[in-house]
Amino acid sequence: MPEGDALQSDGNAVDADLVAQARNGRNQAFDLLMRRHSPMVVRYLTRVLGNVEDAHDAAQETFVALHRNLHRFDPSRSFVAWLFHMARNKGRDALRKRTAMRWLGGEDSMEQYASKAPAPDIEVSDRQSLEQVEDAIRDLPEGLKTPLLLSAIEGLSHMEIGTVMGLTPKAVEVRIYRARSRLRDSTAEKGEGAD
After folding, report:
1. In whole angstroms, what is the distance from residue 82 CA to residue 164 CA?
2. DSSP-based three-state secondary structure for 146
3. Cα angle, residue 189 at apex, residues 142 and 48 outer, rounded to 5°
4. Burial class (CB within 10 angstroms; exposed 0-12, middle 13-18, buried 19+) of 171
5. Who contacts 132 (Cβ-Cβ below 8 Å, separation ≥6)?
6. CB 32 within 8 A of CB 3
7. pTM, entire model
8. Are 111 and 53 a contacting pair, CB within 8 Å?
């Protein structure tokens, strides 16, 4: 079946077929998996790590790990859940590395000296609201942030998120609810403080 036809059928079946082809040395199949899924992995990691450069690095590490572990993929399970499990681990690794570099003083960034306040000529209330939400998401504990991002941004089901995180679908639902509640509370507090 030509690759274009394969993309028209069920996504998980296509992914499983591409993994099988990549395992057998077909590099084009792995390239197609990367092109297909890297945008959502980068989006997820950008929100976890707070910047695009680190997200691209972690996404690259995710796909390297994916390639090394193709033999471990179980085609009866969701490829996307397996991929995000790896991306979540690489995001955690990047955060630990960042913390260690700061602790050792190896990350001399002007960010620590720069003002968080926007320049007066570009101050826009929508932009501030967006920044407040992004800050609030960044401040969420990882156990609440991951299910929220995978659900709201990437559209994964509670079952797939549960597979990524080792939780039941009901536990995922509860965590998403708690994350949204914290976001509402946090943005409301910051909104009141701005008056």
Report:
1. 6
2. helix
3. 20
4. middle
5. 186, 187, 190, 191
6. yes
7. 0.63
8. no
Same structural domain, 98 and 124:
no
Tens-place pLDDT, residues 158-185: 998 998 899 999 999 999 999 988 888 8
Q: From residue 137, give the alpha-carbon distance in Å to each of 16, 53, 69, 140, 187.
A: 32, 19, 31, 5, 10
**In which domain, by residue range, is 177 found?**
115-195
Which of 70, 3, 76 lies closest to 36 in space, CA to CA? 3
**Residue-wise pLDDT tens digits, 33-85:** 999 999 999 999 998 888 899 999 999 999 999 999 999 999 888 899 999 99
Is the C-alpha dihedral spanning 43, 49, 53, 59 positive or negative?
A: negative
Residue 191 belongs to domain with CATH number: 1.10.10.10
- Asked if 184 and 153 count as a contact pair (C-beta separation under 8 A), the reply is no
Total count of domains within the chain: 2
Tokens of 103: 């602790």
Q: Are residues 130 and 85 in the same domain?
A: no
